[in-house]
Amino acid sequence: MLNTESGFDSQLPVLNSGVASFAAFGLQPSAICNLLSAGCVQHSMFRVNRTVFRFLLYASSLMFLFSGKSFAQQGSKAVVQVTDSGYYTSFDNTKIYFEKCGSGDPVLLLHGFMGNSSGWKRSDLYKQLLEQGYEVILIDLRGNGKSDHPHREDAFANDAECRDITGLMDFLKIKSYDLVGYSRGSIIAARVLRNDPRVRRAVIGGMGAAFTDTSWKLPKALYESLIHSPAPEFEGMKNYVRKQKLDSVSLAYMQKQQPFTSPEELGKIKQEVLLIRGNVDSTNGSTPALQALIPHSIYVTVPGNHNETSGTKPFADQVIAFLKQ
Fold it and tell me: Does residue 118 sit in the same domain as residue 172?
């Protein structure tokens, strides 16, 4: 396991079999549930009678059985479908992909390096937030996932990712929101904390105080390894980038232009902040040192290493408890 901030081994996309089963018939799970009592199924594309509906329901049930998952296995509530998704055009015409799911107080989740928003969908936190009645907002940070991948160094400079986020909140007309970052997402979350007063409270996960030091060597080492021949310790990372067909140029520039937040800036944060990391995660500097810099912060550890912790139930339990206090 590489000792970097990537979290890349937990970012592979998967497909929810239940939603796929209904989607195969052009219907979403919520539509099925809403129409059970209506005596027929109405869809924007077609209408079917009870007999056809029963066939579809029977066939869908078989697909659930063979997929190995059911609503009951997914928890006390069914998986909530995405309520809105699309692209927002940011300040420099970079298109940023986002999704919204659920309803309630908004919570924005920020993924780590070489990840994308789909990583959060496999996490216990995503599931719990929806079950607890939050609106979950996901974003593919520029250079990642479905968002544009600029091949210019200046496209990642001057708090570009922070500006993407605050612009997205404007676009969505969000008046206040909670913020959860993990790994490199925490570095961006710190910038948002300093620049957007709409943030109620924030979670900084998988991160120590290294990003407050402009002499931190890791971003430059990652940049050099992605642009040129990788150092031996980053060979696995470079192989992963090739295998997953990630954009090494965009990834390199986001590391070269990695934002730093000074201790002085952190000292001005007024919101409550939860600092959380795995008990065997030694990456990215000291979290107790980071806690000393943020006035209204608490620090907890949960079982896990850097690449796995954000997807676990203990991590989710701590975040949910913090958001509810």
Answer: yes
Do 42 and 187 lie in one domain? The reply is no
pLDDT higher than 90, residue 143: yes
**d(C-alpha 186, C-alpha 297), whole Å:** 14
Helix (H, G, I), strand (E, B) or coil at 196: coil
pLDDT recorded at residue 13: 33
- Amino acid 317 reads D
What pairing do the DSSP bridges indicate for beta strands 177-182 and 199-205?
parallel
* Region 127-145 average pLDDT: 98
* Calpha distance 193→182 (Å, rounded): 14
90 is a domain residue: yes
pLDDT band of 54, cuts 50, 70, 90:
very low
Whether 285 is covered by a domain: the verdict is yes
pLDDT exceeding 70 applies to what percent of the chain?
Answer: 75
The number of distinct structural domains making up the chain is: 2
Res. 277: pLDDT tops 90: yes
Residue 62 included in any domain = yes
CA–CA gap between residue 322 and residue 324 (Å, rounded): 5
> Does 293 map to a domain?
yes
* DSSP three-state, residue 302: strand
Residues forming beta bridges with residue 89, ordered by sequence position: 95
What distances in angstroms separate CA 217 from CA 6, 141, 255, one per listed residue? Answer: 15, 23, 11
